[in-house]
Amino acid sequence: MITCLQHPVNELEQLRSFHKLFFNTGYTRDVNNRLQHLKQLKIVLQEYEEEICDALYLDFKKPKFEAEINEFLIVLMELNRIIKNLKSWAKPTRVSPSLLNFPSRARIYHEPYGTALIIAPWNYPFQLVMAPLIAAVAAGNTVVVKPSELTPNTTLVISKIIKKVFDSSYVSVVIGDAEVAEDLLELKWDYIFFTGSVPVGRIVYKAAAHHLTPVTLELGGKNPCIVDETASLQLAAKRIIWGKCVNAGQTCIAPDYVLVHESVKNQLIKALLVELEKALGSDPELSPDFARIINTDNFIRLNRLLKEQLIITGGDTDAAQNYVAPTILDMGRLDTRMSISQMPKVMQEEIFGPILPILTYKYEEDLKPWIEKYDKPLAVYLFSKNKSLTNHILNDLSFGGGVINDVIIQFLNSKLPFGGVGNSGIGAYHGYHSFKTFSHEKAIIHKSNWIDLNLRYAPYTGKLNLIKLLSKWL
């Protein structure tokens, strides 16, 4: 069953008819109309704040603090930022004219693509629908959003909010499972924005390629967290535990595994154990500050990753509530000769849960070949006071983004583009970068008529050397 435009649609042909209702009009292009809807959206979001947090708790026991900080307030701040800056962002941007076009003026016009499809994941089910939606509307697009079917309570609230703010021919919600998403991807869209796993990202990209539709793919990767012998270990441990436990580790930019210098391994593990107990108590299952795994399938997957590993702490699970305890694994010393297929399962794939493998290294030159065994990660984290190592990591490794001496917080700076590279994603967003993502930059030259230089016109005899001379100054 597909639910869209607040009524059921059972057949793909009916869905195609629904899709035809969406088109970019002069109404959506008008910046004042966009602002009016965004301001109304802000009012409605604030009305639904408690209901949003309650829905996130019902879906997977997301703590109220995390729901507020990582979902609601991030969206509200992004909305405020776009409302404040939209008029200036939407203005044509003046650029220097080329002497070859003298006399002329040059502008970049920000044009909406048309109708955007946003497919959102379950791990941050409110934020990762609303943030790209706000940007798409701000850029002047009409939008169809497909929230995750794994978070039905949050999806219901999102649907109510959107219905209250937007006409269904402007923004609408399609509710359904993976089959519904496949049906949507068969249609021709003007832009597709997808957040989710790498395998599904490939499916989206293939579908978009059929229509030559531009995409943003926000995917994931096996994000390394390096701790060298110069790091402030207690602070590093505190920040790593936070980054691994927030949302029960179900964060695309969470540290996936730790590479620690062998000389400080024991000290780091001791500090991690101390910080874990400080954060969640002696029994994390009883903590109100620790979320649950989203569903049975992911619970089973994570449970399998724990098999036959040396568990330092954690390892407890409860299938009745999809609980997996924060778990630290001792994986021994990294062996750069091993292929990924020879490694334990927990080191073969992105974990996406509260399991933290610890590997030791001895030589800095082993870090790069180890990390590059995997596809380019979405994030890399380094805890170090060593400037040489820092420069090596920043300049010699390719990855989406990262932090020196902390984790995850690169996401919080709206002035920084957020996105992956290679297997971890295509494109970036946040703040002005979001507006640009959903806008086509249309290049326009306004040529004057008061003089018309003959240099470019035939006959060309005697003109080439002059053009070559001029080219040195352009």
* Quaternary structure type: single chain
Strand order of the largest sheet: 2-1-7-6-5-8-9-19
Question: What is the number of helices?
Answer: 16
Summing up helix and strand content along with how strands pair, one would put the structural category as: alpha/beta
Spatial gap, N to C terminus: 60 Å
Beta-strand portion reads 15-25%
Low-confidence stretches: 1-12
Main sheet properties: 8 strands, mixed
Q: What is the strand tally?
A: 20
Mean pLDDT, rounded to whole units?
A: 92
Shape annotation: globular
- Percent of residues in helices: 25-40%
The value of Rg in angstroms is 25 Å
How would you characterize this protein structure?
The protein has 474 residues and is an alpha/beta fold. The protein has helices at residues 12-20, 26-29, 31-47, 49-60, 64-90, 127-138, 152-165, 178-185, 198-210, 233-245, 265-280, 296-305, 367-371, 387-396, 432-437, 464-471; strands spanning 2-4, 7-9, 93-95, 104-112, 115-119, 142-146, 171-175, 191-195, 215-218, 224-227, 257-261, 310-313, 317-318, 323-324, 327-333, 355-361, 379-383, 401-404, 425-426, 439-447. The strands form 4 sheets. An 8-stranded mixed β-sheet has the order 2-1-7-6-5-8-9-19, with helices on both faces. β3 (93-95) and β4 (104-112) form a beta hairpin. The longest helix has 27 residues, at 64-90. It is globular, with a radius of gyration of 25 Å.
